[in-house]
Structures are given as structure tokens and as C-alpha cells.
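PT: before anyone asks, these are the final sequences, not the draft ones from last week. 426 residues across everything. Please model them as a single complex and drop the result in this thread when it's through.
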Amino acid sequence: MSQQTAKKTKQNKPSYHHGDLRSTLLNAANALLRETGIEGLSLRKLADKVGVSRTAPYHHFKDKNQLLCAIAEQGFVRWHQDAEFIFNQKGLLPQEKYRQFFHGYISYAADNPELYDLMFGRTIWKQNSATEELRKAAFPSFHHQVEMTKKWQAQGLMPSGEDTLRLSQVTWGTMHGIARLLIDGIYADRSHIDAMCDCAVNLFTQHISEVKG
Amino acid sequence: MSQQTAKKTKQNKPSYHHGDLRSTLLNAANALLRETGIEGLSLRKLADKVGVSRTAPYHHFKDKNQLLCAIAEQGFVRWHQDAEFIFNQKGLLPQEKYRQFFHGYISYAADNPELYDLMFGRTIWKQNSATEELRKAAFPSFHHQVEMTKKWQAQGLMPSGEDTLRLSQVTWGTMHGIARLLIDGIYADRSHIDAMCDCAVNLFTQHISEVKG
DNA sequence: TTGTTATCTTGACAGCGTCAACATATGCTT
DNA sequence: AAGCATATGTTGACGCTGTCAAGATAACAA
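LR: through. Structure below.
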């Protein structure tokens, strides 16, 4: 019993082939992920929701892992766009830009908790099951973080005495840790998110007045 | 087909009742968790390993969740002991003590990755499925962190201008984030753990020479 | 048109958590 | 000591899961 409209041709007659199943699956999977989390996302429910048989998705994704990687990949692309937007703003003091970046990161996680869990969780990375496409989408985000840290050190915003790689690992670790404590249900009270972010930014940065880049 | 020695009486005859099944299950579950992670820990494998039928564990744990909570509870007790040992050391400079605490936290996570995942992961907390016993074992750890932060602020080790709760949320978030990035397989290279911890400690503390307590 | 390939279907299997019904041992009450 | 309640163990069954195998259908290329 299919939950969704059955696949149709342009003449609105049901057809054996779907025609656009891969992207339809991806969209439905995103919605299902958001509603039920990774644990609740089953291929069978997904197929049922889209209106195809249980094994139809296997012609577009080798297995469940490949579907999950494809979803995560989209998540990285979208986050990268958000980050780029923040970095490309003109006329902001470095500290204000860093502050927005920090808040933006936590907001992205808080707004897409299940997606964030998938993007940075052990389901994919600990099993070493990331596809090549996913790695290509994810690594630039990591790398970008290091590049920006180097720049912030040069600007005097962050302590130049610390090794750049270590510093970016720690600052990213902080964002990741706060994000996880939030989305995993340990920090139940979300009314203090902004205050927490501001506190972290204060700890990591020194006030400077000149805009260098 | 049981994998383990069948339960025996003192006369070495197999007996219908196990006699100590609950703690036997807990021990075996700990081992299984360490080997296979939460995902790989199934009640059926566990029962088989211990040499009882699939449903025998249900007489000692209401469901799988209660077993997981019991394991996590032990994890919090053990961590609390480790932390107490560090805090009770005499004659250490505050910064050195904080440094050891930070390293100790990360080491505990790195040495017991699957247990840490269970203790602080969404399996338990996001589903809001923690038992009362688990909460009683976990909350003191959270609370203790706040108390120590207050002390460190008073000692001048940490910035007194920040709200204590926010500060402890951020510092704990940092430890948690680094721990998770490690055990979830995102920071694959573990040779820099100590350097990362030291970098974080540097960022969060100011050098002071007097031992106040 | 014919044959190849892509796509979708049903059937099947093993593993999972867990409920129901039944079996057996333990231990308390008389 | 006898009997009965309770604790603890067992097998059977159900619905859920991911995924393989084999067959059906449509699209496409020669």
C-alpha cells in the first residue's frame, strides 16, 4: 500500500518506471530523516512513502549506506554555502565575523539536528564507509576552517602562539561539542545557546578594532 | 548453541537457574559493547554468549534500554572515581590540575570509546529514556564540573568575568567535542591528542603560581 | 525489429526486540 | 514436610529490518 501518489507519465497514467526515482528518494529521505532520525529511517518505509517496492531503491543506491552518504553530501554542500555567505560579508570586524560564524555553525546543527548527526556522526565516519563523493564534499569544510584560523591568527584575533592546526581542531571541537550536546538531548534548555556561543567567542578571541580582510 | 560454559551448580552439574545472571549479563554486555559498539550489541548475541535463551535477560532488565542504562551507569561511576582521584591530588598548581583533568577526560573517552558513546550519546538522552538510577549517577558529574569551574574562577585560573554556568558549558563542550571527533572517527590521527588538549588548556586558563587549594 | 540494458517487482532469508505461554526451581507459610 | 507463590528459565511467534535472487517490464541502441 503506497502512501504517496503512484508514479505517472506525462499523460497522468501510471507507468512501470518512475522516471525520477533517485532524486525523489533523496528528497523523501531528507524529510524522513528530519522526522525520525537515522534510526527511524528505513529503506522500506522510504520506498513505501515514495510509492515503489522495497527493493526499487537498490537500483539507485548500492545499499543503505550509499543513500545516507548522498544525504550527508547535500548537507555539506548546503552548510558550505551558509559558511561562504558569512565569510564573504564585507565591512565586519574580524571578531564579529567569527562570532557570526560560530553562531551560524550551531544554528545549522540546531536547525538540522538529524542531518548534522548524519554528517558528523559515527554511522558514516567510524565505520569508514564514506563514499568518495561524500569525502570530496566534506573535506573542503574541514580545510576551510584551518585556512580561516590561520587568517584570524594573522589578524591578531586569535593567539598566534598556538599551532594553527591544533587551534582549529580545538575551536572546531568546541563548536562540535556544543552542537552535539544540544542535538543529542544533553543540553535540554535551548534558551542559552546564544549566551554559550558568545562565551566561547570571548574565550577564543581578543578584541581588535582594525578590519584587515 | 551456547558459546559459553553452561551454568553449573557447586557440584558442577548443569542447573536450570543461573544464579548470578544479572551481573553476568552486565559483564558480558560490557565486553560485547567494547567489541562491537552499541549497534552490534544485540540481546540475542548477549544471551547466546552467556549461554541462556534469548528471553532470559528480560527477567533482569525490562528491555534493551534498561540494560544499556545499567551499563552507562557503571561508566559514570568509574569516570567519577577517576575524576575524584585527579581532583584530590595535593600540591599541584591549579593549571596543572586542570590540565590533568582535561587529559583524563579525553583519555577516558579514548580508552572506552563505545562506553563513552553510550554514556553521552543520543541513544539514551535524546530518546529521553534514561532510568532514574542512571540520572542519579550522571548528574553529579555534570554538577561537579560546574562547582570546579566556580572554584577555578575564584582562583584566578579562569576568567571571572564570564558566567560560571556558561563557562563550564563551553569548557565541557570542548572536551566533549574533541572526545567525539576522536571516537567517531573524524580525527583519525590520534598522535596529536595531547597537543590538542594542551592547546585547549592554554586557551582556557591563565598562568598563576599560587596554590590556593 | 531485435537484442541489450536499465528499472521495477515479488519471494525469500537471517537477524533484531519483544510478547505470550509454558516449565522448573526456589523459598516462604502453614 | 507439604503446598503454594514467586522468581527465573524456556520455546514459539510476530512484525520489523537490510538485502539477495529471480523474474517482469520498459527504454534504448543496433
